Amino acid sequence: MRDYALATLFKAHHSPVAKRSGCLSEANPAILRPASCFRLPPRPCQKWRRHMRDNYDIISVIRQSNTDKGELEMGKASFRVVDFGRTKYGEKAKKYILKGAGGAILEVSDYGGKVVRLFTPDRKGRLKDVVVGFDSPAGWDSGDAYWGCIIGRYGNRIAKGEFKLDGRKIKLPALNNAPAGIGCNLHGGARGWNAYVWDAKPFVYGDKVGVVFTHTSPDGDEGFPGRVDAKVTYTLTAKNVWRVDYEAVTDKPTPINMTQHVYFNFKGEAGGTIEDHVMKIAASRVTPTDAGQIPTGRVVSVAGTPFDFRKGMRIGERINEKNEQLDFGRGYDHNWVLDEGVMAKKKAKARLNFAAEVSCPLNGRFVKVYTTEPCLQVYTANWCDWNQRGKGGEHLSFRCGIALETQHAPDSPNHPEWPTTIVRPGQVYKTATEFRFGAK
C-alpha cells in the first residue's frame, strides 16, 4: 500500500523518471508493480516534499482502505477532517475525507463545497482520482474559481445582469462574464457562494457518510434581494453514489438556482482530453444561445444536430463540426431540456429522473446522473487555460474535463414562460442530484 500512495505522488512530479524506472504500470500509472522496482528520486525536490505534506491525509485514508493490489476494500463508512489552508479572503478552510462503505473516497472542502478528489474503481477494481481541480485554496483563488464548487445564488448566466421581479427591475452590480464581449452575471456574481467557507458538519449514518454544509447569504448579497439560508448535503453511499441535496429559504422573493460544478475525467484527473468519453443525454431539445451564450428563448430539437446524444455518442465525434452554436462556446457549453423534467412535461413528478451518462471505454468507469431538475448544462472545458496548473502541478488542458450541471434553464428570471426560479417567503427551495458511479 505504501507503494500505491507514493506512486500517486511520484507520478505528479517525476513521471518521466517513474516510467523509466518501470515502477508504474502503463495501463494505470497510479498502480505499482512489485515494491522492489520502486525507486524514489535520489534528491526529492522541494515540490515533491510539499506535495507529500499536503496530501498526507488523503494518502492515509487510501492506505487504510487498499489491498496490496491497489484495490479498494469495501467496509465501514468513515470520515476524517483536516486543515485545508486559508482562502484569499483570510478564512480558514477544512477538508473532509469521506470513505464510502462501497469503496469510493470523496474529498471535499467547506470552502464553497469544493470537490478536491474523488477516487472510483475501474473495471479491474483499480482506483484513480477522476475529478479535475486543485490541491489547495490557492488554486481556485488564482485560477478558475468554479471547478468542483457549489454554485449559487444563481447558477449559470443572467443576461446583462438584470431581470424584473414583481414589476421591479433588479440590476446586479457584477457583469463577471462576457462571451463575445457581451456582459452577463455568471454563477452568482463577483463573489458567489463558491467563494465562502460554509459551516460544515460531517456525519456517518449506517453505511452512509457525508457532510452537511450551511451558509447564510444576506439581503443584497451581490445585488440579489432577500436573505437566503442555504443547506447542501453531500452523501456518499455504499453503492458508490454521491448524492447532493440542496435546500434554501428566503425572507424576500429572489431567484435561486443552485448546482454543482464538478469536472470529471475518467482517465484520471490528469488524463488529457475527454473527447474519447461516451455521453448519453435523455433530452430531445436544447435552448440555443446568442453569441453571448444567453438563451434566445427558443427551445429546439436536437435531431440531426451535434447535440443529439439520445442514443449515446463519443463526445469528440461532432464537437468540432462547423456549427454556429458550437462556435459560440468553442464546443459544448449548452443547456439540454430533460425529457422527464418539468420544462418538457408540465405535469412531471418531482422525482429523480435519469439525465445523462458519461463513460470511458478505456477503463469502463462511468457516472449516471439522476436529478429532480428540469435541465442539464454540459460544459466540456473549452476555455481551459494551459497556463493554469491543477493537482500535482499538472497543466490543465483544452477539454480536460466535463461538467454536468443539473439546473433550471439559464436566464430563467427573464423568461417567465419557463419553470420559475423565484423562491418566495414560506416556500422551500429543494432539489436533488445523484452521481452514480460504476465500471463496465
From TrEMBL:
Pathway annotation: Carbohydrate metabolism; hexose metabolism
Top EC class for this record: isomerase
Molecular functions per Gene Ontology: aldose 1-epimerase activity; carbohydrate binding
Keyword line: Carbohydrate metabolism, Isomerase
Keyword Acyltransferase found: no
Reactions it catalyzes: alpha-D-glucose = beta-D-glucose
Keyword Phosphoprotein carried by entry: no
Residues that hold beta-D-galactose according to the record: N156, R157, H261, V262, Y263, D333
InterPro entries (alphabetical): Aldose_1-epimerase (IPR015443), Aldose_1/G6P_1-epimerase (IPR008183), Gal_mutarotase_sf_dom (IPR011013), Galactose_mutarotase-like (IPR047215), GH-type_carb-bd (IPR014718)
A Pfam family the protein falls into: Aldose_epim
Domain of life: Bacteria
Active site location: H261, E405
EC number(s) given by UniProt: 5.1.3.3
A single cellular component GO annotation: cytoplasm
Biological process (GO), any one: galactose catabolic process via UDP-galactose, Leloir pathway
Family, as annotated: Belongs to the aldose epimerase family.
UniProt-recorded name of the protein: Aldose 1-epimerase
Organism: uncultured bacterium r_03
